[in-house]
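[Meeting: bench + compute handoff]

Bench side (C.D.) handed over the final construct sequence. Compute side (W.E.) agreed to return the predicted structure before the next meeting so the bench team could plan truncations. Sequence as handed over:
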Amino acid sequence: VKSVFIPKTVTDGYSALKYSNVENVEFEEGIEVIPAGICYGAEKLTKISIPESVKEIGHDAFAHTKITEIKLPSGITKLGSDMINGTGVKSVFIPKTVTDGYSALK
C-alpha cells in the first residue's frame, strides 16, 4: 500500500504507519484533530494532505518521516510538540491563528 486515506472519524493511532511502505497520506475534509504520532516513523512517507478543517496537529504526528514540506491550514490553532522532528522540512508558514505551538518545529 502506497497511499492511505484517513477518515475524519479517526481519533487515535500512534505509530499506526511505522515501518510501512506508505508514501502518501490524505486526511479527510472534516477532521479537526490529527492524532498524535499517526504517521510517526513512516520512513517512506513523502507527501501529506492536510485539509482546511484541521484545528490541531498532535505531537509527533509526522516525526521521522521523509516529508520535506508541510502546508498548514489557515485556521489551525495548535501544533503538537516535535510534530515534524526528524523530517526534511526546512521552512513552515505558521498562520496567525496558532496560539499553542511550543517546540512544534523542533
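W.E. noted at the follow-up: Residues 7 and 28 are 5 Å apart (CA to CA). C.D. will use this when planning the next construct.
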